[in-house]
C-alpha cells in the first residue's frame, strides 16, 4: 500500500505545471521573463495576459530524461512580458495541460529619474486644415542618457498620404535645466478626407547603456509613447469652383527660350513648369493656352512628379506644346494664369506667366483645301510600241507583276481617299491625335516640300491614313515610281470633297 501511495505522489509531481518569473518588481518599460514548464503537447492560451501585459518575445525548449516511471519529456515556454501600466498587477492564472496555474503578483513602479531622462513628443504645424492641404508632423525624441540602440515607430493615420521628409536631424535642447540630445523626424501628411483625423502610434523602444544612481543594470529597455494629436479637416471653401489647389506658394516658369525670328511653318516646342509648395504633382492642373490667330497648338500629355525639401512636398508639373506658326507678323501668345488657395493667407491667389510675342516672317500658309488641275502626262506612243515589241516572256511577267502591284497600291490609296471624302469633317491631324512622334515626323516631311505647296494636304492625308513616310517630293515619287504617281493623281482627281472650303491644316 505504501509503495502504491508513493508511486502516485511521484506521478503527480512528475506531471506538475511550474510557472516562474525572474523578478516581481520592475519599472515601467522593463520586461519580465516568464517561464512555463509542463509536459503536455497542447498550446497554451496566452489571451489572459493581454489585459495588462505585452508579449515582446517568445522562446521554446524541450528536454527528455529517463525516470523510474519511464521517459519524461519536459517543455519550457519562455515569454518576455512588459507591463502596460504602473501599479500592482497580476500575472493571471493560465490553463496549461488541463490545469490552472497560480497567479503571480507584480509591482510596477515609475522611475521619476527615468521620466526626466527621456521624452517623446509629437507636434503638428496646423490642427485645422482644408481638404488636400499639407500638415507637417514633427516627432522629437529627447534623451539625457547614452543609448545603446532602439527603434522609433512612425505615426499612424487612417487616411491621407504620409511621407517621411529627409534624414533625422540631431540637435540639443535644455528643458527644466536638463540638457538633452534631440533626434527629430519630420513627416508630410496630405489630407484626403473631411472630418477629424487622428495621428497616433508614435512610440519608441530604447536600450539604456548606462547605469543610474538607483543601480539598475545596463541594457535596460525603455518604452515611450507620444501623446496622439487630432487634426480637423475642413471641406473645400465655398466659391472654389474649377480646380481646387491648396499650397503655400505657386510659381510658373517658362522652360523654353523664345525664338528670335520664326518663318511661316516653323515649329517651336514650348514647355512650362508649375511649382507648388505643399502640394503633390497630381494635384496640379493642366495648363491651357487659348486659341490664337496665326498659330496651331498641339499639346502633349503633361508630366507630374513630387520633390521633397525641409518644408515638405513640392509638386511639379511640366506641360509641352508644339507651336506651329501659320501667319507672318507679330503674334502674341496670351498670359497663362493659375488660381490657387494660399494656405498661409487663407485666400485665393492667382499666379501669372507673362504673354510671349513671336516674330514671324514669310508668306502666309493656306489652310483651304486646294483645287489642283489634273496633271497632263505626255506619252510617246512610238516609244511605247518599241518597248512593247522588245518584251520577251520574262519581261511580260515582270510587267504583269508591276501591274498587280500598281493595282494593289491604287486600291489602298483609293480606300484612304474615299474614307476621307466620306467624312470631310475629319482632319488628318485628328487621325494622329495622341501620336506626337508621328505628327512631328510628318510635319518635318511636309516642311521639306516647298515646291509642292498645293499637294501638301493630300500628302498629309496619305501619310495619316497609311502611316507611311511620304517621299520628300512628288518629283522624286514620279521619277522612282511613275505608275504609283499616276495612280495617286487619278485617285485624287476622281472626286472632289463636297465642301471645298473645308480646312485641312498643316501641322
Write a short abstract of this structure.
The chain has 507 residues and is α+β, with helices and mostly antiparallel strands. It has 9 helices and 30 strands. The strands form 9 sheets. Strands 21, 23, 24, 25 and 26 form a 5-stranded antiparallel sheet that branches. Strands 1-3-5-4 form a 4-stranded antiparallel sheet, with no helix packed on it. A 4-stranded antiparallel sheet has the order 10-12-15-14.
Tally of helical segments: 9
Q: pLDDT average, as an integer?
A: 76
Strands, count: 30
Largest sheet: 5 strands, antiparallel
Written description of the protein model:
The protein is α+β, with helices and mostly antiparallel strands and 507 residues long. Helix content is 21%, strand content 41%. The longest helix is centred in the last third of the chain and has 30 residues, at 393-422. The protein has 4 domains: 17-110, Immunoglobulin-like (Sandwich), CATH 2.60.40; 113-234, Immunoglobulin-like, CATH 2.60.40; 246-361, Immunoglobulin-like (Sandwich); 392-494, no CATH class. The chain is built from 9 helices and 30 strands.
Give the SSE layout.
Blueprint: H1 2-14, E1 18-21, E2 25-27, E3 32-38, E4 53-67, E5 70-83, E6 87-91, E7 95-96, E8 99-100, E9 104-109, H2 112-117, E10 118-124, E11 128-130, E12 134-143, E13 147-152, E14 161-175, E15 178-190, E16 195-199, E17 203-208, E18 220-225, E19 229-234, E20 246-247, E21 249-254, E22 262-263, E23 267-277, E24 295-299, E25 303-309, E26 312-325, E27 329-333, E28 336-342, E29 347-353, E30 356-361, H3 381-389, H4 393-422, H5 428-431, H6 436-447, H7 456-466, H8 474-480, H9 482-494
Parallel strand pairs: 2-9, 11-19, 20-28, 22-30
Antiparallel strand pairs: 1-3, 3-5, 4-5, 6-9, 7-8, 10-12, 12-15, 13-17, 14-15, 16-19, 17-18, 21-23, 23-26, 24-26, 25-26, 27-30, 28-29
Helix pairs in contact: 4-7, 4-9, 8-9
Amino acid at each position: 500500500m505504501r509503495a502504491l501511495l508513493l508511486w502516485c505522489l511521484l506521478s503527480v509531481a512528475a506531471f506538475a505545471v511550474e510557472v516562474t518569473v525572474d523578478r516581481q518588481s520592475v519599472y515601467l518599460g522593463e520586461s519580465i521573463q516568464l517561464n512555463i514548464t509542463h509536459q503536455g503537447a497542447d498550446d497554451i492560451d496566452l489571451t489572459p495576459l493581454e489585459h495588462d501585459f505585452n508579449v515582446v518575445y517568445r522562446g521554446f525548449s524541450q528536454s527528455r530524461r529517463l525516470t523510474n516511471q519511464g521517459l519524461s519529456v519536459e517543455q519550457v515556454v519562455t515569454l518576455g512580458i512588459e507591463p502596460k501600466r504602473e501599479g500592482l498587477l497580476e500575472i493571471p492564472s493560465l490553463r496549461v495541460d488541463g490545469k490552472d496555474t497560480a497567479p503571480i503578483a507584480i509591482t510596477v513602479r515609475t522611475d521619476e529619474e527615468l521620466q526626466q531622462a527621456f521624452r517623446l513628443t509629437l507636434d503638428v504645424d496646423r490642427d485645422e486644415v482644408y481638404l488636400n492641404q499639407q500638415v507637417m508632423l514633427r516627432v522629437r525624441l529627447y534623451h539625457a542618457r547614452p543609448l545603446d540602440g532602439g527603434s522609433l515607430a512612425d505615426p499612424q493615420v487612417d487616411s491621407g498620404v504620409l511621407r517621411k521628409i529627409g534624414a533625422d536631424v540631431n540637435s540639443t535642447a535644455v528643458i527644466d535645466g536638463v540638457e538633452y540630445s534631440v533626434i527629430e523626424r519630420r513627416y508630410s501628411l496630405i489630407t484626403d478626407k473631411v472630418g477629424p483625423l487622428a495621428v497616433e502610434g508614435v512610440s519608441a523602444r530604447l536600450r539604456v547603456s548606462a547605469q543610474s544612481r538607483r543601480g539598475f543594470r545596463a541594457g535596460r529597455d525603455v518604452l515611450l509613447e507620444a501623446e496622439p494629436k487630432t487634426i480637423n479637416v475642413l471641406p473645400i471653401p465655398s466659391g472654389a469652383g474649377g480646380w481646387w489647389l491648396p499650397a503655400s506658394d505657386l510659381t510658373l516658369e517658362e522652360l523654353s527660350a523664345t525664338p528670335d525670328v520664326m518663318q511661316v511653318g516653323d515649329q517651336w516646342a514650348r514647355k512650362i513648369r508649375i511649382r507648388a509648395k505643399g502640394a503633390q504633382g497630381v494635384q496640379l492642373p493642366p495648363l491651357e493656352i487659348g486659341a490664337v490667330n496665326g498659330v496651331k497648338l498641339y499639346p502633349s500629355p503633361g508630366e507630374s512628379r513630387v520633390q521633397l525639401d525641409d518644408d515638405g512636398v513640392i509638386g511639379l508639373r511640366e506641360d509641352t506644346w508644339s507651336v506651329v506658326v501659320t501667319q507672318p507678323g507679330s503674334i502674341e501668345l496670351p498670359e497663362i494664369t493659375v488660381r490657387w488657395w494660399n494656405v498661409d493667407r487663407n485666400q485665393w491667389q492667382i499666379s501669372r506667366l507673362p504673354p510671349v510675342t513671336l516674330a514671324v516672317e514669310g508668306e502666309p500658309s493656306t489652310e483651304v483645301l486646294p483645287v489642283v488641275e489634273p496633271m497632263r502626262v505626255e506619252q510617246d506612243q512610238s516609244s511605247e510600241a518599241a518597248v512593247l515589241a522588245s518584251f520577251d516572256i520574262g519581261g511580260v511577267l515582270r510587267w504583269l507583276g508591276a501591274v498587280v502591284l500598281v493595282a494593289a497600291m491604287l486600291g489602298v490609296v483609293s480606300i484612304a481617299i474615299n474614307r476621307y471624302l466620306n467624312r470631310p469633317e475629319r482632319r488628318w491631324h485628328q487621325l494622329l491625335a495622341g501620336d506626337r512622334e508621328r505628327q512631328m515626323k510628318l510635319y518635318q516631311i511636309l516642311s521639306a516640300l516647298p515646291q509642292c505647296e498645293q499637294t501638301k494636304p493630300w500628302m498629309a492625308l496619305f501619310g495619316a491614313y497609311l502611316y507611311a513616310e511620304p517621299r520628300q517630293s512628288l518629283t522624286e515619287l514620279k521619277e522612282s515610281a511613275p505608275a504609283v504617281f499616276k495612280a495617286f493623281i487619278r485617285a485624287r482627281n476622281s472626286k472632289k470633297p463636297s465642301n471645298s472650303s473645308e480646312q485641312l491644316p498643316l501641322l
